[in-house]
Amino acid sequence: MGALKGSISVRRYVVLDKLPAEARKKLTKGLRAHAFVPVDPRGDAERSVGWVDLHDGENAELSPELLFWNGTDGEQLRVTLRIDVLKPPAAEVKRQTAVRVAEREKAEDRALARREKQAIKDEVARQLRLRTLPRVRLTDVVWNLDTGVLWLWSQAKGVNEAFLELFAKSCALKLDIDGPARWVRDAKLGRGLETLEPTPELWAGFPGVRPLGGATEVA
Q: SS3 for 112?
């Protein structure tokens, strides 16, 4: 999760587009349109991605009261990205398939064809799927609507890709990773160059490390 508890691993984004008119209404509508829907164990889909309440990962009934907050530095949109994966353990599928194939070959006194083995494997996977619990991953999102800065509490590639895809569908706004690469691009284009300055640690140093600001030049 991250925003309230758990991992502090975070990736920062910047929303490049301006907010639309009636932003709260449109953002709420977009998030609700892509709210989380559980994976159907009787279906074929293995993965489901959607939005849930920041405080309750089981609640996909999103309302403005749950989504919008007044923070110390501006209004925030707070929500959680939920990713469920429902897939039977491959090792168990393989084990049970081998047992059933052996039993049938013994009963029929013949070797089964590849398609017959595949049919048995598919049936084993279908039955196990009904008894398998999904793997649930919750990742918090906090978006400062006034500054345009957005925090996603995960560095994982798959989570970030799922987030970017869902955010584009839900909000129809462009995002960019906020970090050194973006700062350099802005500096080259003459934007924000005057705001770039060394961090306090560069001059004050860290405990036990000589500050760079106090370094002497070696002859």
A: coil
